[in-house]
From TrEMBL:
SUPFAM superfamilies registered for this protein in UniProt: Periplasmic binding protein-like II, Winged helix' DNA-binding domain
One Pfam family hit: LysR_substrate
InterPro entries linked: HTH-type_LysR_regulators, LysR_HTH_N, LysR_subst-bd, WH-like_DNA-bd_sf, WH_DNA-bd_sf
Alphabetized PANTHER family for the sequence: HTH-TYPE TRANSCRIPTIONAL REGULATOR YBHD, NITROGEN ASSIMILATION TRANSCRIPTIONAL ACTIVATOR-RELATED
Classification via Gene3D superfamilies: Periplasmic binding protein-like II, Winged helix-like DNA-binding domain superfamily/Winged helix DNA-binding domain
Protein known as: LysR family transcriptional regulator
Cellular component per GO, a single term: cytosol
One GO MF term: DNA-binding transcription factor activity
Organism expressing this protein natively: Klebsiella pneumoniae subsp. pneumoniae (strain HS11286)
Amino acid sequence: MMNEPWQRLPALSLKQLQYFVTLAQLRHFTDTASRLAISQPALSSALRQIETVLGGKLVNRTAATVTLTELGAAILPHAQRILSVAQAAFSDMQQIVEAGGDGTVRIGLVPSVSSLLFPLLPQTLAEAFPRLRIEFHDQTNDALIQALQRGEIDFGIGAIDSSLPAELLVYPLREDPFVAVLHRDDPLAAQAHLPWKQLVGRDIAVFSKGNIQRLVAALVESHRLTLTTRYQVDYIETLYGLVRSRLAVAILPALYTTHLQDPALRVAHLQQPALARTVALMRGPQALPPLIEDCFSLLQAALR
């Protein structure tokens, strides 16, 4: 539950937290004081105040370097998150004052879901909130989840998997089945539906990051398939390039192929067994500003 604004907060300032985070990064008092443009006594005093408020020692200091205690290492990510949220909020307030606008909404996206959103969603938001600034952040699924946890984005559209933190609020939108992309001259290219076992012995290309590789690996292991994942790539064009060159069969979710219009490539739905990821709207548990809540509700209704 959110604290009421008049309730007493711990006697820590954002500047003190900034001192601790910077010291944890540089691991040296002199370098940290220089970076922050303060004296070493002022830095030491701020650190003692933090330790007094929190009730424990955060760093071990020697003549040569600084190391974090177990408590300091545990507290560091929380301090980083507070600073990140505060900076984002301050930036939003500055934009409102400087531009006289309604603020900014930050939406995280895994790249493949753009076909669900454009051009309808930006047009709908622009009509409903004409002075709203909209930021779309293209991210891997893992990066999107981390950005939600750190408060770097307001909400996002990604995929559900076992790594999803329990505190996130998740609203499933649709199933996204996995497909194979093959060269048109491939003997399997004429099939609209392709059993996984027919890919045994073929060189496979998949994305190297995110949950797609984990989903494929879990299916292969559970069904005791022998697939040769020879290529792992970061970008969709590299994946398609391997297929165009007849070097591999690509495996990926169908949403990636929505706008695929390459005459050299063919798409086949994978089956026996079917594999799909669940695309979902996600947000953190914290309350959002009223305008951002309205944007979220509009997005949720538009994607149903």
